[in-house]
């Protein structure tokens, strides 16, 4: 039952045998989509050969000091955090290089030396909340789970004790400039040079989908794995809509996407490259690139062999006579079909009323003749009380019995439900998982300021070793692009992928909050009128005013005053 992810996460090697103590690489992958939209994926990787457990590190060169202190202070083994706005539409855009659910996702592996994992987890979320200027302080025991089979370590070592793993999501977290600015400050060159100058907030957030993430893990420093290095990988994934950002035209450029052009690589980077996916147009039949490049590269990513045009920013010839690179991508024709993803999923809530409901999770296997297992993780808040005896799994109209089930029931106001299942998906099938639930009635102080908007339920997580179309590259000692080396492969016939469903928006029984408001207003009005009138009567002082003299008398007094005679 643990083989599913274990095959993908053993002994991660760094791409080069002769890796220095410090190293920084940056990449941008641009994938034109068949809909006319465009997908851009930034990858920034910082390597540092050090040991936070044995050595007290005080000098930082490329690795950010704030994250280094977090690793040392809280004995972090691995840390993965993502901030996402929008939902990745797998059937329209294909598989992403870095999957992430809507909102915020955080999962951490602690060292086995940590005695109080829950206490350390709470302190760590508060510190990360300050570093990334996010609402991670709202992560507590009510939205934290401890998976038993999902989220294996991505770094060195595969011996796992899930007592040291914590996973939490905030599906309602909004991503904005406040999160992007501290994220860019973690880069060695910041946003002043290299590919990071393209990360302009007003363009990134004016897109259909954008996600930024930070991944920290230990990896092997050489092919023999005699020494380890800490890898910090920062990623940004964004999808621009051609109707919003390109005025409906099937033509893109760096300036149209980011309102910036490139003038130089990051001086601290050992490698700085731009990859443009031209797999569907290897001879330029459908896509036209300007300026053209003679550098071509092939890489196996997401189970398929892709062809890329490469622009090396470390070469001055890339920028031409203008000393500026504004890459232009133009469609010549609309022909061609996108390769359907072999695995995708969706989820929705069924039922009526505010008492009972039912969660439906659909998993699609589009492979024509091969079945494969998937590991499904469901984390449901405590106020949706699952009836686990109503759990059903069906494929092609027949019951599909999971080979592994782990269920941890919730406790009111203490912890959520946790459900993990290992399910075999038949070829060309739709597997449906359903479970009924009952809505709980919250205390009036537990409702959000906008209770009628509803309550969010985090995305389901589906992990799987999907059959590959081509033989996957298992040689981890040779240099590979960053976008194809995040999930290492131990088998040539499969590749690891993770799919997230949509978050759910569920309405709960909500009291009439306008009634207390009306009572408060009426009571305040009565008190103000009644008490105010009584207070005025008790504190006001009365004085007798003499009637004012007539006009003739006032004129006579003026004349008498001018003559020096006393007034009448």
Automatic annotation (TrEMBL):
Pfam families xref list: Gpi16
Record's GO cellular component terms: GPI-anchor transamidase complex
The name this protein goes by in its record: Phosphatidylinositol glycan anchor biosynthesis class T
GO BP term, example: attachment of GPI anchor to protein
InterPro entries, A to Z: PIG-T
